[in-house]
């Protein structure tokens, strides 16, 4: 049995990292798509 405090702390802290990771992956995806276009354009 986990204390309610521990469970609450996990549920509260977990939501923020995924948002940062999701934005990071989106930025990486965009950079990977934009880089080839720039090379082809030049």
Summarize this structure briefly.
The protein is mainly alpha-helical and 42 residues long. Helix content is 86%, strand content 0%.
Structure overview:
- Helix content is 86%, strand content 0%.
- By secondary structure, it is mainly α.
- It starts with a helix and ends with a helix.
- The relative contact order is 0.08.
Structure keywords:
42 residues; rod-shaped; single chain; mainly alpha
- Roughly how many Å apart are the termini? 61 Å
Number of strands: 0
Count of DSSP H/I helices: 2
Element order, helices and strands? HH
Low-confidence stretches: none
> What's the story with the biggest beta sheet?
none
Coarse structural class: mainly alpha
Provide the residue-averaged pLDDT.
61
Tertiary shape: rod-shaped
Proportion of residues in extended strands: under 5%
**How much helical structure, as a percent, in the residues?**
over 70%
Instruction: Kindly provide the radius of gyration, computed on alpha-carbon positions and rounded to a whole number of angstroms.
Output: 19 Å
